[in-house]
Design brief:
Dipeptide-binding Protein, domain 1, 17 helices, D-Maltodextrin-Binding Protein, domain 2, 533 residues, alpha+beta
C-alpha cells in the first residue's frame, strides 16, 4: 500500500494515486473534539467531524453574514434574537450510514457542557441556555442574552457528534474510549487507521452530503524533525509542510517540486506560569505565586531578541497577550524590556541576591523554577535557552526540561509544572481567551486554565465583552480585560508566529484561513505535473 511505501521512504505521484500527504510536526493525542487541546488533533478530526456552519476567510465573528452552511443547510433567527433554529442537511449521514438529526446536535451540546467531560470549550458556551429538538432535522439554540457573537458561539466551538455511538459511553472515560482514536463522523473524510508514531490515514467519503473531496485519501505523516521532513518533501514523499522554517524558505523556493506559500496566522508563543502550588492547589506557588516575580520575568525577557533568534523572519515580538490581529486596536502594552527595572522590582519584593551567589532567595526559598519545552520544537528550545540566559543575569534560575508533546499536554492538564513554553493557534474571536484565563467555575472545569489564574476584574471585563451587542462596547471591555491580564502576568508573552508553508507545486490549496489552514482540505486540488527534485 502507498502508506506503507511512504513509511519506507518511497515517493508518490498525487496526480495518479489521488493521495495527499501532509506532515504533522506532532502526533495528535486523540481525535475527540470536546477533549482536543492541541492543533494536530483538530487538523485530523476536522476532516471527519463537522460544524453546523463555517466562517469564511474574513473571520468576521459578528452576526452570521460571514458564515457558510456546513452540516446545517440553513438557519433562522427568532424575532427577539434569543434563539436560532438550524435545519440539518437532509442528505447528511454518519459514516455508518445513519442520518444526522437534531438529536445529535442536542446531545453534542450536552456532552460539551457536562462537567464530567471537562471540555476546554465549555467556557465558551456559557451563553447558550439549551438546545432543543423542534423536528427531526431542526435544532434550536436558546441563549441567555443577545450579543454580537451568538451565531459564532453556536457554531464554531462544537463539532457535531453521533448520539447513537456515544450516548451510552461513560462521560468521565471518553478520553480512553475507542471513538477518541477512531471516530465516526459526517465529514468529507472517513477515519481509516492510525499507526502510532507514523501516520493517520483518512479516506474520502463517497456519500458525503456536499461536494466529494478531490483527493481519495489524505495521509497525515508524523514528521517531528523539520530537517528530515523537508528532505522527504523534496524527495516527493510529502506534499505539504504546513510550517516551514524561515531559514529553509530559500531552499524551497529554488526547488522544482516545492514552493513557499505565505499563510495567514493567528498563532503565538508564550510561557504559561502555574500560579498555584503543584502539590497543594489551594496554596500559591512558592515562587510564581508572587505577582512581582511574574512581572519581573516579563520585563527581564527581551522579546525582540528571543523572537529573532528563535525564528528569524518567522516571528515578530508580541505586543499583547493575544496575536496582534485579535487585539483589534485595543491598547494592551506589554512591559518594555528592562533588566535593571526587573532586578529592582525583585529587590523591593524581598528576593535578594547576596554577594557571592548567583540565585536570589527570599528567606529560605530560592527564586528557581522549571520550564517545560517541547523536545521536537527547535525554535522553542532556542527561545528557552535565551530566556534562561537573560533570567540568570538578574539572579533567577530557570531549569529547562525538554519533553515530548504528549507528555507536555499531560503535565499541563495535571497541573504538574512550574512553567511551560507553548504555541497556541487561536480562534478568530479574542473572547476565546476565556478558555485560558477565566476563573473556573469548579475544579472539574479548570482543564484549560492550566495555571490556575483567577481575577474577578478580568472575569467581569471579558464577560462584558462577550455580552456586548455592538463592537465598540465589546472592544472597550476587552481592552480592560487585557490590561488586567498584563498587570497580573500569568504568562510571559514572547512572539507572534508568521506562517509559511511548503507546498508541492502541483497542489493548489483552497480555503486557507488564519485560524485553520486545514479548514477546506477536501477542496484542495491537483494542477499540472507533480515533479520531484
Amino acid at each position: 500500500m502507498l502508506a506503507l511505501g511512504m513509511a519506507c521512504g518511497a515517493p508518490h505521484d498525487p496526480a495518479r494515486d489521488r493521495t495527499l500527504v501532509i506532515a504533522l510536526a506532532a502526533e495528535p493525542t486523540l481525535l475527540l473534539p470536546p477533549l482536543i487541546a492541541e492543533t494536530p488533533g483538530f487538523v485530523v478530526a476536522d476532516q471527519i467531524l463537522e460544524r453546523l456552519a463555517e466562517p469564511d476567510s474574513t473571520l468576521d465573528t459578528m452576526g452570521d453574514r460571514a458564515f457558510r452552511p456546513r452540516l446545517a443547510e440553513s438557519w433562522a433567527w427568532a424575532p427577539d434574537s434569543l434563539s436560532i433554529a438550524f435545519r440539518i442537511d437532509p442528505d447528511a449521514r454518519w459514516h455508518d450510514g445513519l442520518p444526522v438529526t437534531a438529536r445529535d446536535v442536542r446531545f453534542t451540546f450536552a456532552l460539551y457542557t457536562d462537567t464530567a467531560v471537562a471540555s476546554p470549550a465549555a467556557a465558551l458556551l456559557t451563553n447558550i441556555d439549551s438546545v432543543q429538538v423542534r423536528a427531526e432535522r431542526v435544532a434550536v439554540f436558546w441563549f441567555h442574552q443577545r450579543h454580537a457573537q451568538q451565531f459564532f458561539d453556536a457554531t464554531y466551538h462544537m463539532r457535531i457528534l453521533p448520539e447513537h455511538l456515544l450516548g451510552a459511553a461513560p462521560r468521565a472515560s471518553l478520553r480512553t474510549s475507542s471513538f477518541a482514536r477512531a471516530p465516526t463522523g459526517s465529514g468529507p473524510f472517513r477515519f481509516t487507521r492510525w499507526m502510532p508514531g507514523q501516520l493517520v490515514e483518512l479516506t474520502a467519503d463517497t456519500a458525503y452530503h456536499r461536494a466529494r473531496a478531490r483527493f481519495d485519501r489524505v495521509i497525515f505523516t508524523i514528521a517531528t524533525d523539520p530537517t528530515a521532513a523537508l528532505v522527504r518533501a523534496l524527495d516527493g514523499e510529502i506534499d505539504a509542510l504546513p510550517y516551514l522554517r524561515a531559514a529553509d524558505r530559500a531552499r524551497v523556493a529554488g526547488s522544482r517540486s516545492l514552493e513557499p506559500v505565505d499563510w495567514p496566522s493567528l498563532s503565538n508563543a508564550l510561557v504559561m506560569l502555574d500560579l498555584r502550588d503543584p502539590v497543594r492547589r489551594n496554596r500559591p506557588h512558592p515562587v510564581l505565586g508572587d505577582r512581582s516575580v511574574r512581572q519581573a520575568l516579563g520585563m527581564a525577557v527581551d522579546r525582540r531578541r528571543v523572537a529573532g533568534a528563535a525564528l528569524g523572519d518567522g516571528a515578530v515580538p508580541a505586543v499583547g497577550p493575544l496575536p496582534a490581529p485579535l487585539l483589534k486596536g485595543t491598547q494592551s502594552p506589554l512591559p518594555s524590556f528592562d533588566a535593571a527595572a526587573a532586578a529592582a522590582l525583585l529587590d523591593s519584593s524581598g528576593w535578594r541576591l547576596t554577594t557571592g551567589t548567583s540565585n536570589r532567595h527570599r528567606d529560605a526559598i530560592a527564586l528557581r523554577f522549571g520550564l517545560l519545552v517541547s523536545s521536537t520544537g527547535i525554535a522553542g528550545q532556542r527561545a528557552a535557552v535565551l530566556m534562561q540566559d537573560e533570567l540568570r543575569r538578574i539572579g533567577v534560575t530557570m531549569d529547562i526540561e525538554p519533553i515530548d508533546n504528549a507528555a507536555l499536554a499531560a503535565r499541563l492538564s495535571a497541573h504538574n509544572f512550574d512553567a511551560a513554553l507553548i504555541e497556541l493557534d487561536w480562534d478568530p474571536s479574542p473572547l476565546s481567551a476565556r478558555q485560558l484565563w477565566r476563573t473556573p467555575a469548579d475544579a472539574s472545569s479548570e482543564t484549560a486554565n492550566f495555571g490556575g489564574y483567577t481575577n474577578p476584574d478580568f472575569d467581569a471585563a471579558i464577560e462584558s465583552a462577550a455580552s456586548a451587542v455592538d463592537s465598540g462596547a465589546a472592544h472597550a471591555s476587552a481592552s480592560r480585560a487585557w490590561h488586567a491580564l498584563v498587570r497580573d502576568a500569568p504568562a510571559i508573552w514572547l512572539y507572534d508566529l508568521e506562517r509559511v508553508a511548503a507546498i508541492r507545486r502541483c497542489i493548489r490549496p483552497s480555503g486557507v484561513r488564519a485560524d485553520a489552514w486545514w479548514s477546506a482540505l477536501s477542496e484542495w486540488t491537483i494542477d499540472g505535473v507533480c515533479r520531484t527534485d
